[in-house]
Every structure is written in C-alpha cells, then in structure tokens.
Design a protein that fits this description.
The structure holds two protein chains of two kinds. Chain A is of the alpha+beta class. Chain A is built from two helices and eleven strands. In chain A, helix 1 packs antiparallel against helix 2. In chain B, strand 2 and strand 3 form a beta hairpin. The chains are: A alpha+beta, B mainly alpha. Chains A and B meet through helix 1, strand 2, strand 10, strand 11 and helix 2 of A and helix 16, helix 20, helix 22 and helix 23 of B.
Amino acid sequence: MESKSQGRGGFVLGIAALGAAVALAAAALPAFSVRPPVEHELRVTASRYRFDPPVIRVARGDRLRLRLAATDVVHGFYLEGYDLDVTVAPLSRELEVRRGGGPPERLEEVVLVADRAGKFRYRCSKTCGVMHPFMVGELVVAPNRLLRGATAAVLVVLLGGLLTVWKTSPRGAVR
Amino acid sequence: MRSPVLGCSPQRLDVLAALPPLDRLVRRRWLPLAPAVVLLALLALFVTAGVLGTPVGNRNGLVVFVWILWWFLLIAVLLPFGARAWCAACPVPLLGDWLQRRSLLGVRSADPRAGKDGPGRLIGRNRYFGLARRWPRALSNIWMQNLGFLLLATFSVVLLTNPLASAVAVGGMVILATAVALVWRQRSFCRYLCPVGGFLGLYSLASALEVRARDRSVCATCRDKGCIAGNERAWGCPWLEYPSRLERNCACGFCLECVKACPHRNMGVFLRPPFAERRLAGWDEAWKAYLMLTLALAYSVVYGGPWGGLKDAANIAESGDWAAFGAYAAGLWALALVVVPGLYLGAAWLGRRMAAADEVSVRQAALAGAASLVPFGLLVWIAFSVPLVLANGSYVLAVASDPFGWGWDLFATASIPWTPVVPHWTPWLQAALVGGGQAAGLRSGWLESLDAFAQRRRALAGFAPTAVLLTLTALLFLRLYTG
C-alpha cells in the first residue's frame, strides 16, 4: 500500500511536472504579434546611480543605435547577454566600446541588433560611487518567453494543486 | 528497536553514524572554536579595513567579503544545507563566551551536591562568570530581533555601501554581544537579540540538517542530563534548549555541545528532506516571515531594480535628502508592519470564514498560512542574492589581494578586472527559485492548514486565499526579476 508520504511526494511531483510542461508550452508559443524589425535611435544618459531611460523595450531583430552620455563622472554600460561594454566619459561624445573581450574601438554610437529575446540588465562597469554595484537598467527584448512560461507555471501549480486536492477530498473526510 | 523521535522527519540519515571520522571530529573540544577564532581574526581585519581602508565599498574588504561573499554563502548554502551552522562558528559572541566561561577549550564543571562554593556561578554542573541572569520572560521571543533587523534594513544602503558604517555596525554587534554575555546567561544575545539570528532561526526550519536525539526513550531514562546541565565533557546547551526534546531547528545553534555531552551517544546530526519542518510557534515568528518577505521584495526593487529615484531616497548618507529618506523609510515600515502582514492576515481570516471553522482561531489559521512563507521567503532571498554574486563576485578576488584598497597585491589578483560570470542566467535562476519557492510554500502551507483545520475540504477552503495571495506574490517577484 502506498504510504501517505509517498502519496504526497507523488502529488507534488505530478503538479510540478504539469507546471513544467505548461511552462514549456507557453514559452514555446509564437509571439502573438510579429512585426518587421525596426530601428530605434536612443540616447542613454548615465548619472549616479541611474540610467535614463531605465528600461528599454524592443522586439527581437530590432536594431538599436545607442548614443551614450555621462553627466557627472565616468560610467560604464555593460549589457548582459550581449557581452558589450562601453565606457562613457562626461563632456565627451566619443565612447570606448569593447565587444566580446576584443580590443576597444572608439565610436560615437553603438549599433546593436537585439537578436536575443528576454530580459538583460545593463550595469555600470566603472566604479562611480558607493552604490555603483546597484546602478542598473533593463533591456527587455520581446517575446519574453521566460516571463510567459514562468507565469504559466506558477498559475498551473496553484490551480492544479487546488483542483487536485478538491477532487481527491471527499466531503468531510478527515486528513 | 529504537523508538522514533517526535518532531523529526521519518526520512532522515544519521550523518554521524554514517561518517565515523566526522563523529570523532565533532566530539573534539576545539570544534567549532577553531573556525570561530579564525573568523574572529578575519572579522577584526575587515573591521579595521572598514575604518582605515578605502571608502569605496566595492574595493573594501569589509563590504565585499561580508555583504557579497558571506551573505551569499550564508543565505544560499549554509542556511539551506546546514541550518544554523553559521551560529556555531560565528565570531560575534566569541569574546562573550570566553568571558562567561573564562576558558576557551576547557569545561568548568563541578558537582552541585558538593555545594555551590567556588568561583563564578554554578548553573547545572557548569561554572559561569558574570552576572549570569535569566533573560526576561517577557522578551523571550524574537520581537526584538524583528525590530532590530527592520531598523538595520532601513539603513541598509548605508550599511552595505559605506565601509565605515559597516564597521560601526559589525563592531557594535560584537560589543553588544559581549556586554549582554556579561549580564545574561549563555547565548541570550544570539537567541533573543541578534538581528541575523532571527531570520536564521526562521529559515533554518527549511534546512536539510537537524540536531536531534536518536532515541527519546534513552533520554527519558538518562540521569546525567549533561546536554542541558553540562558535565565534565561539555557545557550545558548554550542556547538554553533541552536538546533531547528539540523538535524545531529555530533555537539550535549547532554548537554540538549536546553531542559532546551525551554519555549515551544519543544526540545526532541528521540529514532530512528540505522543507520538512513547517510549524511556526507564535506571532513573533509569523511576523518575521512577513518582514523577511517584505524586505526581499523591497531590496529587489531598490537594489535590483532600475529606479534611480528609489536608490537616491534610500541612500541618505550621500543624498542628505531627509524628506525623501523619510518617505522611503515610512513606506518600508508601512509595508513591513501593516500592508504585507495585513494582506496575509486578511487571507487567513477569509479562509477561516470560507471554511466555516469557528473552532480554529485566527491565530492558528494565520500561523498555518505563514508557514508557506518560510520556504518561499528563503528561496526569494536566494533569488535576490543571485545577481550579487554572478555580477559582482569578481570583486572578491580583487579585494582579497588588497582588502584595505591601499594598492597591495598579496595574491596577485588585485588587478583582476570586474568580470561578471554568466550574468544573463540571472533571470532564469531567479525564475526557477521563485517557482520552486511557490510550490514548496504551497505544500508547507497546505500541510499546516490540514493540521489546523483537520478536514481536507475545510483545510482547502481555509488555505485557498493564502495560496492565491502567495501565488500573486510569486507573480510580482517574477515580474520584477524577468519582466
């Protein structure tokens, strides 16, 4: 006979597996609205301890032309997932741009194709003050499959769990 | 056949029985003293770095080693897998222990039947120095720890980024712990005052490790009671617990004095499934669960979010804008003391009404619901801490060679540049932790509700509002981390 703990373990595993399956399915769904890639020209200003704009939202395949500026001290712009690191000095239009650990290039703007979907933080990479490690911004490239899949998973775990307990509970049953 | 122990997971592995060399090791008197002494030396070095070293936080040993390395190891490794093992080797109460015992390695024991004459004060069969008063009964809870942690959290930006402020806080804790040890007995500071100890106690419930009696029937017939009274081999439980009756991890500091003291070798260290322990004992622990959830959320917004205005408001030392800081602090306190507890209490009250369970008190329903916040809270704290180490972990290598920021290069690592390690994995790891926390939280809350409401359908109705609220909270974290 199956013990109570084994039964609970199986129940939890079943709900978790269902959640994972729905999460994968939701993440794999194509984007609802697909539009041709567009070009965004953005001016990103870095000052202690913020980026303006704090969040950049684009679609996968979009091309970004970033003009970066610093208003107080030297800042960095390190984009996670794209291995891009830019040094920005105040009163200078010239940027020091490093891609993939390569040699630095001196440019006036950074051109980037948002070919990876999801959420990527950009961080200051040059020590700029006491809150430097927490100076971040966000690039969100649609479709954000992780958010969609994770949202579906937690909802399935909740609803699946409640429904399963309800279905397996005779009215008034003790334990 | 040995009888099972109440309050223990039925599926558990006796670690000391399985690993005899470890069993021999933990019975040595120099453990956990030796690591604590090393950590005290490191603490002294880092506090000195905080006072004399560079004011740039991410180049100062105190800030980098304490708030990046130690914090991550504590919350993501030690706590889930070792419960309060940190407390055993914590350097903060070490001086107080020494002043109370006037001995580092030895044990001062005496037979109380021979009279209480002699130096110090006899408690059980151990001699202690200082006033050795009992901690006031009215304060024998974790409310002071809740308040202390909220106070520190309000000024967290200053503590985390300013080496001098960190040094004052850490040094102040050592002084306070030592002063308390001179007045009150044993580890009263750790148990009732230490702001870190409060959340370690709460989240140690979720840990995969426990110290318990192997067989309670042995304890029932034991005449020595060295685990609580002390004997010539060990001090009585410094945490003022009766080890043979331990049912919860909260107040066990893993010092293993009970393992050393037991003449029957009946105390053991056990590996158990994670999240096996769920029960909260009172409102103080429930409030700790609400508080920790609130702070995980607030920190994820202030430190991990892109909103510079919030960082400025919290960064009072640099901005000097007391109006903005006052609004930030008031918001934080309102969230921690009113909004989040109010929402979860409201959900418990609603569940109790839906279940038509008049015989179940609001307190019982609320504690059952708050049990879900133990695994969830622990995992969202780990999720919050992931980017600290993935994005900023490389500072540890650089600062190890130059903890004062004075241009040293002790291990030839000082010039290692800031190098994030797979930082783009952060949202994936965070999503997995939030999802896992929600599932484990629902399970814990459901099982506790089942105990509180006794009948499955009533338990389901009683827990459903809390389950929905927990899921909404998980969605909020997911939005922050991945959206």
